[in-house]
Hints:
The chain is an alpha+beta fold. The protein has helices spanning 7-10, 49-52, 119-124, 130-137, 142-145, 257-264, 297-307, and strands spanning 59-68, 70-75, 78-82, 85-94, 99-102, 109-111, 114-115, 148-153, 175-183, 187-192, 199-201, 204-205, 210-216, 228-240, 248-249, 274-287. It is elongated, with a radius of gyration of 21 Å. It starts with 6 loop residues before the first helix and ends with a helix.
Amino acid sequence: MRSVSRRTRTGALAAFTALSALLSTGSATAATQLNGDWAPFDRCPVDAPAMLAADGIDAIATCIASGSVTGSITLGKSHVTTGTTDLQLGVIQRSDGTTSLVAPPEGALTADPAEIPGGLLGLMCPSGIPLVSVICRQLTDNDLNRVTATIEPAGAPRDFNMSAAFSTGEPILTIPVRIHLKNPFLGDKCYIGTTADPVLLKPQNLNAPSISLQRFAADGTRDDAGEMGRYTFAGADQGDADFAVPGASGCGAGLLDWAVNLKTGLPSAAGKNSVTLDDTSTYFGSPYDPAGLAPNEGRKLSEFWHSARQ
């Protein structure tokens, strides 16, 4: 890319390296497979109106993807190991220095559900409360005891700080989330946090990532004279240890909220919770020369993306 320091490049770069890996919104399965260097951007919202409208001069559309295979999250007294996670967003960078974020239709975050150690027995039992004791006595079946936790979006990402992607110890963005606890006894509406009172994660780099540049053809094939460019930020652990966690709600139609809160130590004040993502990989991709595609940079980005579909 002709000017690494240019707003076009430094703008979104690896900003989302931050929490991408730690959060979960369901299955991390991608709906589309893309060829070559396009592969990490399989959920980039290239067909969103705001992305298509980018002209390449006053507004530049870019794709960001960030993921991790392992990590962990501590909420109050509960510690859970996380699996594969994926964060993807479109970014519109404007000539006045502002940016806006565009999420894919299914949401910015996807990840494999995490299993709560000890299941419901560990989450609520033993208990001297008759209602809970009755449930505890029935937990002889692994399926009844199993509890999964899935972190879901609870609002739009915000507070995007581009420069924090290149440094350590500075929040990159704010991601409102809620944690969905699933178990037959808890029902399907048991959450830690809500859209009105979410967990606010503010991920940051815990160590500096390594940076490399790839240039590739419109269809994703590696090509040193290709139309596209991709920065890769690798090897950074990321996390946040300064967020508060509200109490549970909707568990067992609300009858078991207090039991979940008591055992897990919720609500939990900032400083008593943490999230860590191991060895994240973050990718920033955009046309190599956005201005050269004006006034149709966003539409060309979409065209290139679709040409890479397998």
